[in-house]
Fold this protein.
Amino acid sequence: MITDPTPIADYLLILPVVLPLIGAALLLLLRDRRVPHALIAMVVVLGMLVSEYLLLGRVLEAGPVSMTMGRWLPPFGISFTADVAGAGFALTAAFVTLLLLVYSLAGQRRGAAHEGAHALTLLLLAGVSGSFLTGDLFNLYVWFEVMLIASFGLLVLDGRNTAVDGAVKYGFPNFLATTLFLVALGLLYGLLGTLNMADIIRVAPSADPVAMTAIAALLLLAFGMKSAAFPVNGWLAASYHTPPAHVAALMAGLLTKVGVYALFRTMLALLPQSRDLLDPVITTIAVLTLVLGPLSAIAETNLRRALGFILIGGIGAALAGISLPSVAGVAGGGLYIFHAMLTMSALYLIAGLIEAVTGEIDSRKMGGLYGASSGLSILFFVMMLAAAGVPPLLGFWPKLLLLQAAFGRAGFAVPAGPDLWGVALIVALLLNAVLTLIAGTRLWAHIFWRQGSIGRTSEQHNTRLRRFTTGERTVALGATAVLAAAIIVVGLVPKTLFDASEVLARDMLDPARYVAATGLEATR
Amino acid sequence: MDAVLAALTGAFLTVGIYLMLSRSLIRMLLGMTVLGNGVNLLILTAGRLTREAAPIIGSDQSVPGGLIANPLPQALILTAIVIGFAMFSFLLVLAYRAYQALDADNTDAMRVAEPEGGPHPPLSY
């Protein structure tokens, strides 16, 4: 019998979940009081940032860390296990949320705090951190639902008709996806008798490969819907342009990335044998998502819908990391998730400012913004280059790793001839960059460069632009600029990124350290 | 017993998926509920059905005396029921709100966020 308690230092692992849950409860209690709600939320997120920074430092130094609730050591209790992927993404999520909270100070409607906007934001962040840090599949399901219900609330808080419409299109597919995840969990439990991730890693190789692949296919569908991979991505484009910009940025930056992270964890670390069998499916999905995402963005005139399609294209790049299970490929995919969390949030924030100044949501009716705000135009342009992956910005490095891995898989030097899947991935990755660049620069030209709205007025000065309010110019533009500066600065130190993502990839592909951290033996 | 419950699970999932293919929000919601109940049955069946004693360990013992029923699937289902109910309640209110605000129960008629016959791609540049 184990009687020694959990070391105090290990409680660091659950702080990123406990802090926002307490904060959300507190804000709900205080919602009728005249207290600075946004400030309380920011302090809580700051606390999360500190704990996650310490956690990431510890993980980078000593390898994965695990803590089991109540010291019911695995496979019995619920474990929280953090490796570089989990701790790093959780840290990024908290950083993005902090800036979004600052940004929302400018555009917040009166009464939003009273309705619980900040409490829901913290709850959503708790779900995101929990998903990144948990070491138990059923617990992952619970965090997915926490995230989902919080995002429902944030979507409809505004109460406009478009938001209700978007929430219907968002709600049903996402609830269905988590239900499918639950089906897979039930079957997995019936087959293996455990849902602890580390334990699954040990037991899965000896289970029936056909049944395991069926479960993996269900997980692929469920998480594919969550992350908006190609055939099941309609809900994203139908809903992400309906809520206020900072809510859309929160969802675009964090929610789909959690889906991709779950795919990385299940496909690469937990069920690699099933991944190998499903490889043609995953590669096809990745290639189609990569190409069709930005292609749809080119055909779209609604600014935030176009951004949604660019976001979907980025999901394809992250999925390419799953279809390239080498160190370079997985490192590239992981780094891409990190990059997309920052860049897509920044783009949505900029879109919010553009919509505020022009009063329009359709890029055809915008124009002449270059003269009105050159700072905004520079931000938008640079972030678009980052999204497309132009060096030396952050988006370039994951694409480089992915291309390197794709060339490795294609194997042009092999006498038997190149592997066509690898060639398809190379073409799709390059095409994605070009198409994203075309879509982005066209948007820039339409919104900033053109004098007025489309048609006969396009050469006339756009008179409907309004000036930034002081709050927008300082707080909102400032928060966006800080996010953009972070993307630029981080992109300038690729060595650190490469080192961290290599550790991430090695722990994903060979989870021996992950299993050892939970206290289980490597093989049963 | 297992086979009967497995067949029942299959029937629940079939009915759920059929209802969800409908355009009516309320029918989709009912389908969601039936599907959710089917999944709960699936977890119960996957956890092996036993008719042994309840999983209670006597105060003078540290391990169960004999065979007991598996308590874990029941814990999982309990969690799933609570979550499923919360989601159902939210979506029900949302469907009612959509009926009030958009005057539509048919998803084909809900085109506020994505207007029908959307604009052509911009032709310039």
Q: What stands out?
A: The CA atoms of residues 15 and 31 of chain B lie 7 Å apart.
